[in-house]
Every structure is written in structure tokens, then in C-alpha cells.
Description:
Layout: H1 2-10, H2 12-29, H3 31-34, E1 53-54, E2 61-62, H4 73-109, H5 111-126, H6 129-140, H7 144-170, H8 174-181, H9 186-222, H10 234-241, H11 250-277
Antiparallel strand pairs: 1-2
Amino acid sequence: MKKLKRLLRRHWLAGVGIVIILAVIALALLSPHLAPRSPLRQDIMVRLKPPGFVDPRSGQTLWLGTDHLGRDVLSRIIYGSRISLIVSLSAVMASAAIGLTLGLLAGFYRGWIESVVMRLVDLQMAFPFILLALSIVALLGPSLGNIILVFAVTAWPVYSRTIRGMVLSFQEREFIQAARALGSSDLRVMFGHLLPNLVSPMLVLGSFEVARMILLESALSFLGLGVQPPTPTWGSMLADGRDYIRDAWWIAAFPGLAIMITAAGVNFLGDGLRDWFDPTLEHTR
């Protein structure tokens, strides 16, 4: 606990990131209770109303205004946090599992296994993301599951390259040599000795990847390749607001702020985790 307090004093932005992430999680979990209106409710009588507009029929204040269909922007932002969290966390966990397994095998066994894995990594990283996303969506159709599949398929090389490099650096360490000398099996060395030392860098890398997934999900939704209407997503709200940017700036501005603040909060936490787990920074804490 003292170590955590020292880190937060030194890296106060990590604390800000924790607060932002907890707030977004609370929005996602408590959406039905926090949203003032249904995110799908259309009311043409109050379309394109500015922030703070009071509906004279009900006396309800529309804090962030309404869009071109009279839907409450605040309610749609609150419900949109669910999609961003589900997609980003699911995609990161899936891609991390794939990348960790392949990177561990490539770094431990070397030889043809390493060659095959690294050539797959090179091939994947050379393939344009948007083209791959278009191909999968065109083949399987746009849906929440398919978006997660796209991100999982495209993001695993980042983990594989990182894990492979770390495994290679650990191979000659004393604790690995001692485990081999004691007759430990390959599985025990990999999962009993190597894997625990890979958890902290995976957490740091995964935290940054969550922010990237949030941005990518918003980008795909903006292009119409993400979760389809009427499900509210921050990216689709941006797309809805681009035609009204002059007269109804709030339709795009507030979802854009939600994306920016959430991604920044995750990155702040990632910076804190990096400092927390980096032994070279111990003397500065």
C-alpha cells in the first residue's frame, strides 16, 4: 500500500486514469439507472435541441441536447460506453491469449516454430487493417462478435513479438537454468517459471491496447463497419453528427470527448502500471 501511495504521488495521472476508468465502468454497468431517457427513443418534436434545453411537455432537462432524430445525446453516450468496454476488453483478452501462446512457443523452442510464428507476425502486420476489417465484415456481416474477431485477429502480433523477445532474454537467466538442471519439464518451465514473469509486461501492454481498441472500434463504427444501428456507439454518434457539425455541434462533440477522455484515462493508467512494474524506476519512487 505504501508503494502504491508513493507511485500515485509521483505519477498522479495514474490516479486520474483510475477515476476515469471506474467512472466509465459505472456508466456501463448502471446505464439503465443513470440514463435519463431510452437511447432509442425518437422524438421529432425536440430534434436538434441544444445542451440544457428543457422539454416544455415534461419539464425534463436535456443536459447534452438531442440529435437529428430527437434522441437524448447523454443517454446514448451512457449506453455507448457498454459497447466500447465490451469490444475493447474482449478483444484485448482474446488477442493477448493468442499472442502470449505463440510468443511463448516461438521464444522457448526457437527453430522452425520461431520462423513460422515470426513470418505470420510479419505477414499480419503488413496486411492493412481496414482491408482485413472490410473483408471479415463483408464475409460475416457487421456485428459485435465479428468486430471483436477483427480486433483479436489483427492485434495478437504485438503481444507475440514482445513476449518472444522477453522469453529470449529470460532463457539464460539463473532461475531458468536452475529449473532445467532440476529436471523440470518444458511445460513446467514455461508456465511455472516464465509465465509469472510475463504477467506484468502483459498488463502494461494490454492497458495501452485497450485504449487503442476503443479508438479502433469508434473508427469502424464511424465508417459503418461496427455494431449496427439502432445500438448506440460513440463512433456511430460521431458519424450522425458530421452532417450537422455547423448547426448542432453537440451531436459529435460530446461523443468525441467521451472517446478522448476514456482513451486518455486508460493510457494514464498504462503509464502508471509501466512505472509500477519497471524495476529500473524503483529508485525514483
